[in-house]
Amino acid sequence: MSADILLDAKGLSAWYGAAQILYDVDLQVRRGEVVALMGRNGAGKSTTLKTLIGMLAKRKGAVSFLGQDISRSESHVAARLGLGFVPEDRRVFTDLTVLENLEVGKQPARHWPDGAAAPVWTPERLFKLFPNLGEMPDRPGGRMSGGEQQMLTVARTLMGNPYLVLLDEPSEGVAPLIVEQMALMILELKSQGVSILLSEQNMHFAELVSDRAYVLEKGQIRYEGAMAELSANEEIRRAYLSV
Q1: Does CATH place domain 5-241 in 3.40.50.300?
Q2: What distance in Å separates the CA atoms of residue 203 and residue 218, rounded to the nearest whole number?
Q3: Residue closest to 203 by CA, chosen among 233, 158, 162, 163
Q4: Which helix (H) or strand (E) is 203 found in, with range?
Q5: Sign of the C-alpha dihedral, residues 19, 21, 26, 30?
Q6: Residue 51: which H helix or E strand, with range?
Q7: Residue 60: exposed, middle, or buried by beta-carbon count in 10 A (0-12, 13-18, 19+)?
Q8: Measured by CB atoms within 10 angstroms of the end CB, which terminus of the chain is less buried, N or C?
Q9: Domain locations in the chain?
Q10: pTM for the full predicted model
Q11: Which residues form the ABC transporter domain (predicted)?
């Protein structure tokens, strides 16, 4: 496996009970890139992210992260290795303040396999990335808007100093201004060396931030390639994305 490949999944299948949701999904994320996992509602995007991080018990296939096999690992093992996950449902601690929520996610500094220091995230640094949060460090999570909670969930994940973040539907259900801030945040993370795999339906948002894309339909990969090529491929977009 190439040294710049962070996450490598081969033949990934998953089930909810007796219902199979994913069928032999292959995907990769390289160091320093943003990859979009595109598809309509119910295509299997969120299930793919949850399967990659080990949240679904009934799964098969091979998943490696930083060259280490995590195919049968639980999600907390992947998190300790530096694989972050931001769920769609904004799991903030409503009774804790912004600062206290951030401290929950804190992990030690990390180094890349080649010895180079990985980005280290502190509350002060995150408040520069998310100015809205910097204005409310003592506000309880339960008194924040949905968009603010989304930012806090991302920021708390970054306190774990991940090499790669799995970001589930970051533009879903938030105000346009927050969507714009999310796009700027993703580009800033990329510039700092953090890789991102995001599940997304919003084609415009994905085009703004992504280097490559996969398109899922009924749990199967229907397209893999550069984001620019997907943008130009009207046939694929109409068939699987309705755009």
Answers
A1: yes
A2: 18
A3: 233
A4: helix 203-209
A5: negative
A6: helix 45-53
A7: middle
A8: N
A9: 5-241
A10: 0.94
A11: 7-243
